[in-house]
Structure formats: structure tokens, C-alpha cells
Write a structure and sequence with these properties.
Organism: Catenibacillus scindens
Structural class: alpha+beta
Number of domains: 1
Order of helices and strands: HEE
Strand content: 35-45%
Protein name: Holliday junction resolvase-like predicted endonuclease
Strand order of the largest sheet: 1-2
Shape: elongated
Number of strands: 2
Keywords: Endonuclease, Hydrolase, Nuclease
Number of helices: 1
Distance between the termini: 17 Å
Radius of gyration: 13 Å
GO molecular function: endonuclease activity; nucleic acid binding
Length: about 50
């Protein structure tokens, strides 16, 4: 997952948090699931909102 995609996901998450009136210091983490051919790899805690 490249930086541009992470930024887009984080921007969407911040918008969601504002819409739901969540505090800005709410801990948020993202897990990523990557699929290559028949292989599935899960990356827990792949990135956070800082």
C-alpha cells in the first residue's frame, strides 16, 4: 500500500470521525489484507492516524 492510498484512507477516516462527532484523539488503526494469487496475507496494525 503506497503513501497516496494511505493518505486517502486516513482522510476518509477523519471525515467519518467528524461526521460521528468522535474526539480527534480517538485511537484508530488500520489492518491491511493483501491477496497475491492464492496467498492471503494479513497485516495487523499496518498504519495509524497520527
Amino acid at each position: 500500500m503506497d503513501l497516496k492510498k494511505r493518505r486517502r484512507i486516513i482522510q476518509s477516516a477523519r471525515w467519518y470521525m467528524m461526521e460521528k462527532k468522535l474526539p480527534p484523539d480517538t485511537p484508530v488503526r488500520f489492518d491491511v489484507v493483501a491477496i497475491w494469487g492464492g496467498t492471503v496475507k494479513i497485516y495487523e496494525n499496518a498504519f495509524y492516524i497520527e
